[in-house]
From TrEMBL, chain A:
Organism: Sphingobium cupriresistens
Protein name listed in UniProt: Molybdopterin-binding protein
Highest taxon in the source lineage: Bacteria
UniProt domain Oxidoreductase molybdopterin-binding: residue ranges: 87-223
TrEMBL record, chain B:
Domain Cytochrome b561 bacterial/Ni-hydrogenase: 14-230
GO molecular function annotations of the record: electron transfer activity; heme binding; iron ion binding
Similarity remark: Belongs to the HupC/HyaC/HydC family.
Coiled-coil blocks: none
Cellular component terms (Gene Ontology): plasma membrane
Source organism: Sphingobium cupriresistens
GO BP terms, alphabetized: respiratory electron transport chain
Protein name: DUF4405 domain-containing protein
Length: 248, 239
């Protein structure tokens, strides 16, 4: 048998399209997607609950911190907030908490800060190192009094992802109370730019970039993700099959 | 390679069941890992050295996207490529670990892969290189042992390349960076790990191509049969 390049190409294409057909089969898809659970279980088992993401030296900061995703929410409501220097912006803390909070940017700035130089890893493969300053999410959640049945923290954002659907993300309590999980209002010693999520964004340093919700408007404590979006806990999880656990 | 046991005339049992199972599982998993890996690479086809690297930083390699006939899935879908890759990767890693432990326990490594006295002498190695270049394959009893180049490439793949590609894969995971921070120091940063992962993947492709070439030249039916059933017909001595 003489194998030509054409045969090899046809063979490769046939096998790969076989894989594609397999990936459309519902139960095979579920099996394939369930690898996420294994990775989450294994990583959580291998790391101490408070194991820190690497923190870098100031000279290791990326010269340019690449902004990704929405560069500017550009909605009338957001533009109005931006024109007012975010003086009218409030972070609403709701859901399974003892008291709802509505925090202004100046109130957040008076709370204890944390500063960290960490690496932002996009799911696409690139990384950028930046210095973040913000308030620990734990500080906010303790202030609101998280109820005992809360399991996840959902983040509501100002950017419209099309059709009036704002961006949303969620993390569980293991990451919510982690020392490096902060609501950041400054990047590289400057107030957060619009491209990087002004006025406030999440940093959850042991996960990929799409978890780092920008343009935060609200935080909601919930006991289940079933009623959030399409039920997978995040915009890209619901609309592009990304893993909810993004430590991988 | 089993201590070859004679069966019918000139046929021996060559490869252990564990070796055969691992071989074909690897064939499947490496195929899935390579093609889905190219799909993931297509999301950002630039490679950097160091801790960070994005569009404004200097890339040492910038490529076009790999075409659909060699990526999994055949259309661009970062999410699906990742699902394939991250489902296959743990199976691949644990299979390697199991194979290493099993081959240590059953003395496959000590008996068949470890270099013997004198094998690494320059004259012996040079002779082996000349034999390969002339396509003079060993016959008779000599065909039942791995030659020195074969041993070197199997040791290099099993104990260097495969562990490196697994560990650099883990280094790209932000969760694993928190769990095992030494990974970042071992490879000099996440972007260096990504580059080494990519280079090792293509080094494995080079191994695969030479491996296939050698099988074809040494008698494909006999070689493939020995990796499926374990039975191998010993090449007769040249007159």
């Amino acid at each position: 048998m003489i194998l030509t390049r054409r045969h090899l190409l046809l063979g490769a294409t046939a096998t790969l399209s076989g894989c594609d057909r397999l990936a459309r089969n519902e139960s095979f898809r579920e099996t394939l997607f369930s690898a996420e659970n294994f990775h989450k279980w294994a990583q959580r088992g291998l790391m101490a609950p408070d194991a820190l993401a690497r923190e870098f030296r100031p000279d290791q900061i990326s010269p340019v911190f690449r902004a990704n995703g929405t560069a500017n929410p550009n909605t009338p409501a957001y533009k109005a907030l931006w024109r007012g220097g975010f003086a009218d912006w409030r972070l609403n803390v709701t859901g399974l908490v003892s008291r709802d909070l509505s925090l202004s940017l100046s109130q957040l700035r008076t709370l204890p800060h944390r500063e960290q130089i960490t690496r932002h890893d996009c799911v696409e493969g690139w990384s950028a190192i930046g210095k973040w300053r913000g308030v620990r999410l734990k500080t906010i959640l303790d202030g609101a009094g998280l109820r005992s049945n809360a399991r996840y923290i959902v983040f509501r954002c100002a950017d419209d992802m099309g059709g009036g659907r704002p961006y949303y993300e969620s993390i569980d309590l293991a990451d919510a109370f982690h020392p490096q999980t902060i609501l950041a209002f400054a990047l590289n010693d400057r107030p957060l730019s619009v491209a990087n999520g002004a006025p406030l964004r999440l940093r959850v340093e042991r996960q990929l970039g799409y978890k780092q919700a920008k343009y935060l408007m609200g935080i909601e404590a919930v006991d289940s993700l079933a009623a959030i979006g399409k039920g997978k806990g995040g915009f890209w999880e619901d609309h592009a099959d990304y893993d909810w656990y993004a430590g991988i | 390679m089993d201590r070859p046991t004679p069966m019918e005339a000139g046929v021996v049992k060559r490869h252990r069941l564990s070796t055969r199972l691992w071989h074909w599982l690897n064939a499947l998993l490496l195929y899935v890992l390579f093609t889905s890996g190219l799909g993931i690479f297509n999301a950002h086809p630039r490679l950097y050295w160091g801790q960070y690297g994005a569009n404004f930083d200097v890339a040492w390699l910038t490529l076009e996207r790999f075409p659909g006939w060699i990526t999994l899935p055949g259309h661009y879908s970062l999410a699906l490529s990742r699902h394939w890759h991250l489902a296959a990767a743990p199976l691949f890693a644990f299979a390697l670990l199991a194979y290493m432990l099993w081959s240590l326990a059953n003395r496959h490594i000590a008996r068949d892969l470890a270099f013997r006295r004198g094998e690494l002498a320059p004259r012996h190695v040079w002779q082996d290189i000349k034999d390969h270049a002339r396509l003079r394959f060993p016959t008779g009893q000599a065909a039942l042992r791995y030659n020195v180049l074969q041993k070197a490439s199997y040791i290099g793949v099993i104990f260097v390349m495969l562990p490196v590609i697994i560990l650099t894969g883990l280094t790209m995971s932000p969760g694993m960076n928190a769990a095992w921070p030494w990974l970042l120091d071992l490879f000099g940063g996440r972007q260096s790990a990504r580059s080494i992962h990519f280079i090792t993947a293509f080094a494995l492709i080079a191994f695969f191509l030479v491996h296939i070439l050698m099988v074809v030249l040494a008698g494909p039916l006999n070689e493939v049969r020995s990796m499926i059933t374990g039975r191998y017909r010993v090449p007769e001595d040249r007159p």
